[in-house]
């Protein structure tokens, strides 16, 4: 595999545009030129904030000799012996799974010469979660990255990628969970308000292996994290969880894809979001594909959004594609709404003030995801972040209707 291998990336002519509707048919390419500049009509860009993402759509060298856009805190990885040298685009296993699906990920592939390779050794059980800290050094700084997380056969562990500071940052994350391995991967977006972050996560799960993938987004001006998981092995299992809290002017987006390819695979997708403030925006698109050979599959996806104020908007689009009739079960659900008046009335009838009642409802709604992380340090930080978000919005009137 080389970076020059390409597949035509869109169907467009001067007088005709044919959008690609099915996620499984989305073309890929390692060459950014094959994609062109998004217009906003493309199915994978039509709900995105292209204006603020514009710096990440340009294929050009970043300034040499300047302070790096991202400072890496890898002390925990080094101490645990989990870092592996990865030099050049052809350094295995880079590219074993990852295929850029848009211009941003193709640019990140091209412009990032050396990958950050994290490997859980075969048969090793990592007792404690390991955190990689990625800190942006400035909103005017532009960075590209390719990260490989590889769980070797029989390994067990939890890797956390914690993003903070500010930058214009394009990131590819390639996740390989080999036979019998059990991996938890948590990506936390705790950026400052002026950060712009676009990330493509692509994972494959082997025979009898398990992957818990979590995306938690609180900070940042625009945060677009698009994860996909391919359950390729026999009895492979995958869970994809997401949590977001969008404030005024924030755009938080996830386009999620789970592909059941192997026999008797099991998958669960649950994303929750809260929104408050004028112009707060969240976008969730969930695609589940059960392949023609994926007999005995059990799959479910759900997205829930809680709109706390007027002026906020949540887009939620679940899709389910089934190519075999021999499955254990499959379904999807989506709900977007304001506070439940009955819940508020119940709490207030017990002597709880309205502001405190609203706080309890939001915390109860979001903590279902937080408690699935299993990393005390991250769970405590997120609980604090939820409280901070609610204090910031204190005193705002309840929304009169759900987001569009």
Would you kindly provide a written description of the structure presented here, covering whatever features stand out?
Residues 1-15 and 395-404 have low confidence and may be disordered. The protein has 404 residues and is an alpha/beta fold. It has one domain (23-392). Helix 4 crosses helix 5 and helix 5 (354-370) packs antiparallel against helix 6 (376-392). The radius of gyration is 21 Å and the shape is globular. Helices cover 15% and strands 40% of the residues. It contains 6 helices and 16 strands. The chain has helices at residues 50-53, 75-79, 103-111, 341-349, 354-370, 376-392, and strands at residues 70-73, 83-84, 116-120, 130-151, 156-177, 182-189, 196-205, 210-217, 222-231, 237-246, 251-260, 266-275, 281-290, 298-307, 313-322, 329-337. It has a 16-stranded mixed β-sheet that branches. The termini are far apart. The longest helix is centred in the last third of the chain and has 17 residues, at 354-370. This is SUF system FeS cluster assembly SufBD core domain-containing protein. InterPro entries: Fe-S_cluster_assembly_SufBD, SUF_FeS_clus_asmbl_SufBD_core, SUF_FeS_clus_asmbl_SufBD_sf, SUF_FeS_clus_asmbl_SufD.
List SSEs in N-to-C order. Answer: HEHEHEEEEEEEEEEEEEEHHH
Query: Which bin fits the share of residues in helices?
Result: 10-25%
Which structural class fits the helix and strand makeup? Answer: alpha/beta
Instruction: Work out the helix count.
Output: 6
Number of domains: 1
Largest sheet, described in full? Answer: 16 strands, mixed
From the N-terminal CA to the C-terminal CA, the straight-line distance is 43 Å
């Amino acid at each position: 595999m080389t970076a020059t291998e390409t597949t035509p990336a869109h169907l467009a002519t001067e007088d005709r545009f044919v959008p690609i509707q099915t996620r499984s048919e989305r073309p890929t390419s390692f060459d950014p030129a094959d994609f062109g500049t998004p217009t906003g009509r493309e199915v994978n860009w039509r709900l995105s904030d292209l204006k603020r993402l514009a710096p990440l759509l340009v294929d050009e060298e970043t300034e040499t000799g300047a302070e790096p856009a991202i400072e890496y805190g890898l002390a925990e990885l080094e101490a645990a012996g989990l870092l592996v040298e990865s030099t050049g685009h052809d350094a295995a296993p880079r590219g074993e799974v990852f295929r850029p699906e848009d211009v941003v990920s193709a640019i990140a592939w091209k412009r990032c010469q050396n990958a950050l390779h994290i490997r859980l050794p075969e048969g090793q059980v990592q007792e404690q979660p390991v955190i990689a800290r990625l800190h942006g050094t400035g909103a005017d700084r532009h960075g590209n990255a390719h990260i490989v997380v590889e769980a070797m056969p029989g390994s067990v562990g939890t890797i956390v990628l914690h993003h903070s500071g500010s930058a214009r940052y394009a990131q590819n994350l390639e996740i390989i969970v080999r036979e019998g391995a059990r991996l938890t991967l948590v990506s936390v977006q705790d950026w400052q308000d002026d950060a712009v972050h676009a990330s493509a996560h692509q994972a494959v799960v082997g025979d009898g292996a398990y992957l818990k993938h979590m995306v938690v987004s609180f900070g940042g001006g625009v945060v677009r994290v698009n994860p996909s998981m391919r359950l390729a092995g026999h009895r492979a299992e995958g869970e994809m969880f997401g949590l977001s809290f969008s404030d005024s002017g924030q755009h938080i987006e996830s386009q999620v894809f789970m592909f059941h390819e192997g026999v008797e695979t099991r998958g669960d997708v649950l994303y929750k979001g809260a929104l408050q403030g004028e112009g707060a925006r969240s976008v969730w698109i969930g695609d589940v594909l059960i392949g023609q050979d994926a007999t005995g599959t059990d799959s479910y996806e759900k997205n829930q959004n809680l709109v706390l104020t007027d002026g906020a908007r949540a887009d939620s689009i679940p899709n389910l594609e089934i190519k075999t009739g021999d499955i254990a079960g499959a379904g999807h659900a989506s709900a977007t709404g304001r506070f439940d008046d009955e819940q508020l009335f119940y709490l207030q009838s017990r002597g709880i003030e309205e502001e405190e009642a609203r706080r309890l409802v939001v915390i109860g709604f979001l903590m279902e995801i937080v408690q699935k992380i299993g990393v005390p340090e991250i769970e405590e930080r997120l609980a604090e972040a939820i409280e901070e978000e609610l204090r910031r919005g204190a005193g705002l009137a309840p929304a009169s209707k759900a987001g569009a």
